[in-house]
Amino acid sequence: MKSSYNAIAGQSVERLAALSDGIFGVAMTLLLLELHAPLKESIHSEADLLHALAALSPQLLVYLMSFLTLGIFWVGQQTQLNHIERSDRHFSWIHLAFLFCVTLMPFSTRVLAEFITYRTALFAYWANILILGATLFLSWGRATKAALIRDDVSAEVPRAICRRILIAQSLYALGALLCIFSTYWSIGFIVLLQLNYAIAPQFGKKKSE
């Protein structure tokens, strides 16, 4: 009996995770490669150096935001993959689309860093976050529909993953809308939101017996 190629393609979760780690690592590295030290020819005193470094602070804030963005989405993807028993062709291609969005982050970061006061640059950056969240949500939808989730995963886990994505994307959208007043308001809100997701303590956690 012949097997369809599409039925046997893209079944390795481990290979998908390995590829994801590599792409995230490269994207995070490219963020920092865009930062350049002040030109030595323009620095003639301590005051000049301090002024030049202060001028770089908006760009540093944007790159910090992007590093946090990639870190949060890496954790989100790994959380999904850790609960997946196996992959299939559709699930793999959705994650490849997600990784394509990851590779766009250095570009959208650079645009925002160069045009930090422009709403268009901020909305382009937010669009990058939006498609990252959308593809991650679609991947989990595929995993549940195709029964790719491990049998020992409780029913609360899929709901928690979907809830996290939807709430985060709603808050990111709110942050983007703040650029009506100032793009710095948007950036500040998004950074605070990301720091909350990255380091905030867990409340209401059940104590182990």
Care to describe what's here?
The chain is an all-alpha fold and 209 residues long. It has a domain at 58-199. Helix content is 73%, strand content 0%. It is built from 8 helices and no strands. It has helices at residues 5-8, 13-33, 46-55, 57-82, 89-114, 119-145, 156-177, 183-199. Helix 4 crosses helix 8 (183-199). The longest helix is centred in the middle third of the chain and has 27 residues, at 119-145. 25% of the residues are buried. The mean pLDDT is 84.
Outline of the structure:
This protein has 209 residues and is mostly helical.
The helix-and-strand class reads: mainly alpha
So how many helices? 8
Instruction: Provide the helix percentage.
Output: over 70%
Whole-number mean pLDDT: 84
* Share in β-strands: under 5%
**Cα Rg:** 20 Å
The span between the termini is: 52 Å
| Principal-axis shape | elongated
For the biggest sheet, the summary is: none
Order of helices and strands: HHHHHHHH
Query: Number of DSSP strands?
Result: 0
How do the helices and strands line up, and which of them pair or pack?
Layout: H1 5-8, H2 13-33, H3 46-55, H4 57-82, H5 89-114, H6 119-145, H7 156-177, H8 183-199
